[in-house]
Amino acid sequence: MTPRSSRRTYDRAMNAQTTRPRPARFDTVVIGGGVVGASIAQHLSRRGVSVAVLDQASGVGGGCSYANAAIVAPHHVVPLATPALLREAPRQMVRRPPAVRVQADPSLVPWLGALSASASPRRSRVATERLQRLAVESTELHRELAAQGLNPTLRKTGAVDVYLRKPRREPSGFVPFVDLLRLEPTLATGAGGTHDGEEWTLESRSFVTAMLEDAARHGADVRYGTTVERLLMEHGRIVGVATPSRTIRADHVVLAAGLGAAPLAGRVGVSLPLRGGRGYVVDLAIDSGGPRLPVRIKDYRVVVTPLADRVRVAGAIEFGDESRPMDEQRAEALRRVAGSVLPALSDALVIDRWAGERPCTPDGVPVIGASKAVENLLVATGHGMWGMILAPVTGRLIADAVLGMPEPAPWLAPDRFAHGMRRALATR
Ligand SMILES: Cc1cc2nc3c(=O)[nH]c(=O)nc-3n(C[C@H](O)[C@H](O)[C@H](O)COP(=O)(O)OP(=O)(O)OC[C@H]3O[C@@H](n4cnc5c(N)ncnc54)[C@H](O)[C@@H]3O)c2cc1C
């Protein structure tokens, strides 16, 4: 189907939805229409399940999926909790600008304790292997979507990692700066770095739109401006959801509400230890002289990604009170770092600045699957730094579970968090 005719089909589907009285019962209600919820809805609707997607925002990208570094790099996926994070965090916190920041917030203490317990070499190695397996499968699914015309901004680009100072331990494939310059001639400085050819770029909101359009073409009912206030329980099962204006009944409910999943789950006895890992994005308009390839500036954990109509600068991870306002200076500091390495970015026009809360678990592994406490409530959140790459495989796993196929692995399950951690979080 051509993009234009697919657009017409989508418009017809959406118009039909708004003129018809909307049903109050579905096989599955998906709460949240970010990259994760949109992928789940796409998988379910294509497999014949009647789905409603409910999102409190007024349109695409109301949560963390508004923007991100736009990178799909399966072999770079690692959990948040690693020995390297613990080793480097003190240095990263004093570096200007800091790549990692933690506010003095007592409610973070148990969560940070669980994070450092997960950062042992063994646990982090096992988590890395598992996450990379998922990421490789998910990248294949991204590519299949692209081959069907359903992932319009996925591009295979490769990417460069540049180190401004020579790292103490050189990563494999490390080459001197002159070799990097051949790949990315707009780099102004560096001690060397690496190149990975197996990387893609993908714009987040276009991905969400494409998934929801495809879901709608297959019968899904996508409703923005619809806040789920609570989950409805009867005899130990979820029977639907309550919005301010109505109740919607369903056989299964999928909680894909990013950071918003924790309060909803908590009220039915499923504790999700989620905290927001704030990151920043600055989009620049640039006519010429910008980078050809995505560039990761390793010393500052800043990523520069050329997209079709802009160059994106993204980075930082901060933990604290998630309701605090955006710090504009942090965004500007990232742009200055990018400009010092790629001078064409220094005086480029800023067209967007944004900060978003990555939904993070303390072990850095997403939560995908059902809790034993409420079996027909499926959870899909906590994707942290890797939600966009892992979205399609999450959609596949949740659709399998809804259709009665084997549950996702126990290491993804909501019940994996220790009771002590859950109790500590319940006191927040
Ligand atoms: C700076 C930065 C760079 C990143 N770079 C990358 C990258 O390069 N590659 C990658 O794979 N990932 C990256 N990520 C991570 C990725 O963007 C996130 O993991 C992902 O967007 C999370 O998606 P989600 O669907 O789980 O959550 P969200 O996008 O937050 O979606 C949740 C949705 O639920 C809705 N919602 C919440 N509560 C309710 C409720 N009660 N009722 C109804 N609706 C509700 C919200 O409106 C929202 O739309 C990055 C993130 C950041 C911040």
Automatic annotation (TrEMBL):
Gene3D superfamilies hit by this protein: D-Amino Acid Oxidase, subunit A, domain 2 (3.30.9.10), FAD/NAD(P)-binding domain (3.50.50.60)
InterPro entries named among the record's database cross-references: FAD-dep_OxRdtase, FAD/NAD-bd_sf
SUPFAM superfamilies: FAD-linked reductases, C-terminal domain (SSF54373), FAD/NAD(P)-binding domain (SSF51905)
Highest taxon above the source species: Bacteria
A GO CC annotation given for this chain: cytoplasm
Record's keyword terms, sorted: Oxidoreductase
Domain FAD dependent oxidoreductase: 27-400
UniProt key word Oxidoreductase: yes
GO molecular function: oxidoreductase activity
This protein's name: FAD-dependent oxidoreductase
